[in-house]
Q: What sequence folds into this?
C-alpha cells in the first residue's frame, strides 16, 4: 500500500530540504500540519535554513514575496494541503505580479490515500494553476530532491508575460517519509535572454527622430542599474521616464535615479501621457486600466501614440538599457537623481495629507516602505526627497499584502527599518503578520490609515454616477461600526502600539519606533 | 468594446439579485470591490435580501456554511475576483465537506478587459474547480438572471460522492451593468432520489440474520427524522448507531436520538468498530483515516467486516430509514434519546477537562455549538446530557472555520445562543469573525482553548516515533511566544471579553454571556 523504502538514513523530506539549502534557500516560512511532519523534522535537521512560523498562510506567502523583492532570491513556504495553500493564494497572486521567485512546498496525502477521500482531500493542482509558473504534483521519495532543485531553478527562470516565477511542489507524505538517495547538486542557473542589436538600433533611431517620447520601466527595467542607464538616456535625449503604478520594488529617494510613477485612475494616466508620440516599454506592457469602466478605454495611451518594446519582462533590461545608452552616446551622461530637501514637520490635526507629511519628514536612511493603502501609495511622490528608500507596492491589487510583505522585507534586511503603510481594510485581512513580527523581533513600524471605511469604494461608487448612496450600499463600504482598535488588536498579537493624537504626536511616534528594535503599530485617523 | 445595452431600467446585477430573492435567498455575506459596484447597487435596491459585511472572505464563506447548516438554504456570498475568492476557499472546502448549499457570486473584469492583463486578472475558474459542484463563468447581462436561478437550483441538487452543493457564478462587470430582461422565475426544486425496494430488502434481510451490526449515519442520514428512524431500528434489532467524526450538524442532547460519534485517530476507530460483522453506510463512506500514517490502513473497518450501502450522500436517507424501519417492524418502536443528567459545576484550575465540564454544566436550552479545536470536539460526548443542542463540527479539517460558522449560525437563528469552541491556532486564522458578530450584535460566545500551541502537531510528531523534539521543530508547534491575548484582540474588533481565572469563573462568564445579547469572548488556558 505504500512506498516503504526507508533503507537509507535520509528520507525524501531531508533530501529535499538539504537540496534547497545547497541551492541557496535560506528561509522557510511555515504553517505546517500533520501531513508535513517529516518536513518539519527535516527543517529541524537543516538549521542552515531559518524556519519562521506564521499564524496564517497569507503571511507565509506575502512574507516570502517581501523577502524575494529585497534579496532577489526565493524563500520556501511550507503549507498544509489544499486549504493551507488556498489561504496563501491572494498573496501568491500579488507575488506573481511582482515577479517574485518563491518555492511553495504543499503537503498532501499519499496518492494511495487520496481515493479514500479523507476530509482534507481536494484537488490541489487546480489551486496551484492560478499563480504557478511551475508545478510538480507527483513527487516520489526518490525524485523529491531533484524536484526541489528543479523548483529552485524554475523560480529564477524568467517566464513570458505575467506568468511569474513561483514554483509549487505538491508532495505526498509518503514521498517525504520514504527513503531517498540523498540530496542532489543544484542545477546551473538560468540567464535572462539578451535582446538583439536590431531592436536596440530600431529604438535608438526612433529616439533620434525626436518627438515626445517616454519610457515605461517595469520589473527588471526598474532595477537600480537599469534605472541609472534609463536616466542617462533621459538626460541626453529629453525622454520622460515612468514606472508603472504599482511596481514590485523601486529604490528611490536622494541619490537614486529620478523617475515618475504613473497614477491610478485611467483618466489620470491618459492625462499624464497626453501628447506622447512614442512609448517605449521596458519589462512591461501598455498601461491598462486597473478596472474596466463603461465608456473608458482599457489601454491607456493617447490616440496615435506609437509603442515599441525594448525588452519584455523575461529579457535582460539592464543589458538592453546599457547598450541603448551607449548607442545614443549617453553612457557618460550623469544620472539625474532625486534631490534631498528638508520637509517641514506637520502640525495639528491628522488627515491623509498631514500623515503623509509626517512620514516624509521623519524618514530614516534606507527605509523600506511596504504600502497597501491609497494613502500609502499617494505618499510615494512626497517621500522621494527625504531619504534613500526601497518602496514595495501592492502589485496585484489583492489587499492584505502590506503587513506580510513588510514582515518578509524585515526578515531579509534585519539592519534596515521597515514601514508598512496600511489601510484599515487591507490590514484586517492579514493582521496575523503582527505576531510573526513580534516573535522574530522585526523592525517593522506599521502605520494604519484608519478612515474606518473601504474608502476607495465610496469613490468608485460615485464614479458610477450614483450620487444618492442607499443605506445598504453605505453599510457595505463602512468598516467603522464598530471601529477597529488597532492598538488593542496589535496587543492581542504581542505588539505594542499607540494612537497618534495629532501630527506632532505621529512624528514623535514614528521616530521613536524607527529607533526602537522590534515592531510597533501606530493608528492614525485619516 | 462593451455590451452597452442598458435600455431597460433593470441591469443584469439587479435582475440577478431580484431572481435570487424570488428563489428564496435571504442573506448575502459580502466583501465587495470595485468590480462588484453594480451588485452593491442591486443589493441596495433589494432589501428583501439582508446584506452583511465581513472583513475577510473566509468569514463570508464560513458564515454562509453555518447559515446553510442551520436552515438548509443557500446564502449568497459576494467576492472580489480571484484573490477574494481564494481567501474564501478554505471555508468553501469545509462547506463542501458539510454538503452545505451556497451561491458564490464572484466579480470579474469584463471579458474584453481580461486581455489587457490588469493587475487583478487571474484564472478564476481554476480556483472555483477546487470546491464547486456548479460553475458558470461566461455570464452576460441577458443570461445573468437565469444563471442565478440555475445556481440556486444547483445548490439544492444533491451530487454524488463529495462534490458538495456549492455554486459559483463568476460575473464580468459588464454583465452586471448591461441591460437585461429583468428577473426570471425560480426553477422547480430538485428532489433527492429514493432508493429501490431491493436495497431495502437486502439490508433488512442481512440485519435479520443477526450479528454485530452498525449503522454509520452521515449528512442526510443524521437529519433528525433519519436519526429517529435509525434509533427505532437500533432499539428493535440491537444495531449500533454512529455518526462520522466530524458531522456538519447533529441535533443532540436530552430529547434527541442517542447516537455515538466515531473518534479521531485511526487506532481508536478500529478499536471502536472491533468485532463488527457488518457496517451499513447511510449517506457516507467507509471511515477513512484523517491522515495517512506508515503501516496503518487507510480504511478503518475490521478485517472481514461486510459493508452495505443503504443510501448514498445524494439519496434520500430519511425515506430509506423510514421504509427500513417499517420493513423491520420497528416503525412503532420508541426512539432512544439522550437522558438529561445534572452535570456538577467544576471548580479549581482550568484544564481541558474542567473547561469541558464547565461548558456541559452551563449549557442553555437550544445551544448551537460550533467547534474548531480538539477540546471542542472532545466536549461533544460530555455535553449530550445537558441540554438540547445543534452541534456543528469542523467538516473539512481546514482550521479557521469555527468563528465564521458560529457567525452564520447566529445570523440564521437569532433567537438561539451560539457557542464557538475554538483552539487558539484555528481562531487566529479568521479572527475577523468577531467584527461581524459585533456589527450584527450576534449572540455568539467564543471560548478559546488557549494552549498556546498547535498541540495536535506535538501529538502527531510523537506518533512518528520522534521522542526528542529539536529546537526548530518545537518552535514550529509553539504559538505561545508571544502569547496571544484574545481579550485584547476581540477588543480590537469591538467585542468585549474576559480571561477566565478558574473553573468557577468560567462557569460564571459563560452563563453571563448566554444571558447578555451580543458577542463575548472568553479566553481559558487549556
A:
Amino acid at each position: 500500500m505504500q512506498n516503504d523504502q526507508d533503507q537509507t538514513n535520509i528520507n525524501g523530506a531531508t533530501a529535499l530540504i538539504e537540496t534547497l539549502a545547497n541551492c541557496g534557500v535560506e528561509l522557510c516560512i511555515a504553517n505546517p500540519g500533520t501531513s508535513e511532519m517529516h518536513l518539519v523534522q527535516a527543517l529541524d535537521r537543516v538549521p542552515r535554513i531559518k524556519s519562521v512560523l506564521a499564524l496564517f498562510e497569507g503571511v507565509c506567502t506575502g512574507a516570502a514575496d517581501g523577502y524575494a523583492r529585497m534579496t532577489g532570491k526565493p524563500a520556501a513556504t511550507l503549507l498544509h494541503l489544499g486549504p493551507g495553500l488556498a489561504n496563501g493564494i491572494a498573496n501568491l497572486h500579488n507575488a506573481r505580479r511582482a515577479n517574485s521567485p518563491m518555492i511553495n512546498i504543499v503537503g498532501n496525502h499519499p496518492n494511495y490515500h487520496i481515493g479514500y477521500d479523507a476530509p482534507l482531500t481536494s484537488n490541489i493542482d487546480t489551486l496551484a494553476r492560478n499563480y504557478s509558473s511551475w508545478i510538480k504534483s507527483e513527487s516520489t521519495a526518490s525524485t523529491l530532491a531533484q524536484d526541489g532543485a528543479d523548483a529552485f531553478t524554475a523560480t529564477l527562470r524568467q517566464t513570458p508575460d505575467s506568468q511569474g516565477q513561483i514554483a509549487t511542489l505538491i508532495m505526498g507524505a509518503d514521498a517525504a517519509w520514504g527513503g531517498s538517495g540523498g540530496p542532489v547538486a543544484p542545477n546551473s542557473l538560468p540567464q535572462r535572454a539578451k535582446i538583439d542589436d536590431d531592436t536596440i538600433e530600431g529604438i535608438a533611431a526612433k529616439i533620434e527622430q525626436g518627438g515626445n517620447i517616454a519610457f515605461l520601466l517595469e520589473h527588471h527595467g526598474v532595477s537600480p542599474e537599469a534605472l541609472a542607464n534609463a536616466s542617462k538616456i533621459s538626460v541626453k535625449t529629453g525622454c520622460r521616464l515612468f514606472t508603472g503604478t504599482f511596481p514590485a520594488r523601486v529604490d528611490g529617494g536622494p541619490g537614486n535615479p529620478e523617475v515618475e510613477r504613473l497614477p491610478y485612475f485611467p483618466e489620470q494616466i491618459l492625462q499624464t501621457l497626453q501628447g506622447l508620440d512614442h512609448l517605449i516599454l521596458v519589462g512591461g506592457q501598455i498601461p491598462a486600466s486597473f478596472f474596466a469602466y463603461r465608456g473608458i478605454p482599457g489601454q491607456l495611451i493617447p490616440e496615435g501614440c506609437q509603442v515599441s518594446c525594448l525588452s519584455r519582462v523575461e529579457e535582460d533590461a539592464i543589458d538592453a538599457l546599457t547598450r541603448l545608452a551607449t548607442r545614443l552616446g549617453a553612457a557618460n551622461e550623469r544620472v539625474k537623481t532625486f534631490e534631498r530637501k528638508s520637509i517641514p514637520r506637520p502640525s495639528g490635526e491628522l488627515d491623509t495629507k498631514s500623515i503623509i507629511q509626517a512620514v516624509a519628514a521623519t524618514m530614516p536612511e534606507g527605509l523600506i516602505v511596504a504600502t497597501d493603502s491609497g494613502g500609502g501609495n499617494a505618499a510615494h511622490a512626497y517621500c522621494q526627497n527625504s531619504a534613500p528608500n526601497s518602496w514595495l507596492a501592492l502589485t496585484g491589487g489583492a489587499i492584505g499584502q502590506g503587513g506580510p510583505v513588510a514582515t518578509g522585507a524585515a526578515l531579509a534586511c534585519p539592519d534596515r527599518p521597515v514601514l508598512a503603510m496600511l489601510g484599515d481594510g487591507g490590514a484586517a485581512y492579514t493582521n496575523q503578520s503582527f505576531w510573526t513580527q513580534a516573535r522574530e523581533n522585526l523592525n517593522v513600524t506599521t502605520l494604519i490609515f484608519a478612515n474606518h471605511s473601504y474608502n476607495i469604494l465610496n469613490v468608485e461608487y460615485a464614479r458610477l454616477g450614483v450620487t444618492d448612496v442607499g443605506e445598504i450600499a453605505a453599510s457595505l463600504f463602512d468598516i467603522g461600526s464598530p471601529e477597529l482598535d488597532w492598538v488593542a488588536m496589535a496587543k492581542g498579537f504581542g505588539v505594542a502600539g499607540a494612537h497618534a493624537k495629532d501630527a506632532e504626536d505621529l512624528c514623535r511616534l514614528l521616530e521613536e519606533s524607527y529607533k526602537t528594535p522590534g515592531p510597533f503599530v501606530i493608528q492614525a485617523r485619516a
In short: Residues 372 and 402 of chain A are 5 Å apart (CA to CA). Chain A touches chain B through 111 residues (CB under 8 Å).
